[in-house]
Amino acid sequence: MTVRPLRFIGDPVLRTPCVPVTSFDAALSALVTDLLDTVELPGRAGLAANQIGVSLAAFSYAVDGQVGYVVNPRLVATDGQYDGEEACLSVPGVHAPRLRARFARVEGVDVDGRPVAVEGTGELARCLQHETDHLRGELYIDALTGERRRAALRMLRNAPSGIRDRV
């Protein structure tokens, strides 16, 4: 089991769009294993490769007993609205209500390049959208507006100095 250290807000890798995976080899298998091992710690729902410092388009998820990963994911369908608290491993100590689609479908491939699709509602839909945002170099706080944004920025300013100093 390899749990990889996380990258935090302020690290440029989180703001750089990830590149598509083109080599389906042992290195990709090892990356996916690390993503799965790292996301399965308690309190975690999703993890994009750039959150562990790898700029490849892949993420893992562990939501409501569903665990998996997608390589080269594309968000292909959304529907409805779902408002609820959202947080991010790379922005510790900050959470905010964020409007997302109630339903989301992601398509991509597995470690062998075979097509896969993951779809879900509620928190799984939130996770799929959150992780595909990461792969485009976006953080969930970027889309917050008004009082939600102000509250999140206050939390960030009050975060432990190691995190706050990176912003």
TrEMBL record:
Pfam name, any one: Pep_deformylase
Positions that bind Fe cation: C88, H130, H134
EC numbers, comma separated: 3.5.1.88
Enzyme class: hydrolase
CDD domains given in the database record: Pep_deformylase (cd00487)
Keywords for this protein: Hydrolase, Iron, Metal-binding, Protein biosynthesis
Binding note for cofactor: Binds 1 Fe(2+) ion.
Cofactor: Fe(2+)
Organism superkingdom: Bacteria
Reactions accelerated catalytically: N-terminal N-formyl-L-methionyl-[peptide] + H2O = N-terminal L-methionyl-[peptide] + formate
Positions annotated as active site in the UniProt record: E131
NCBIfam families membership: PRK00150.1-3
Function summary: Removes the formyl group from the N-terminal Met of newly synthesized proteins. Requires at least a dipeptide for an efficient rate of reaction. N-terminal L-methionine is a prerequisite for activity but the enzyme has broad specificity at other positions.
Family statement drawn from the similarity comment of this UniProt entry: Belongs to the polypeptide deformylase family.
PANTHER family noted in UniProt: PEPTIDE DEFORMYLASE, PEPTIDE DEFORMYLASE, MITOCHONDRIAL
HAMAP family: Pep_deformylase
Name recorded for this polypeptide: Peptide deformylase
Source organism of this protein record: Pseudonocardia aurantiaca
Gene this protein is translated from: def
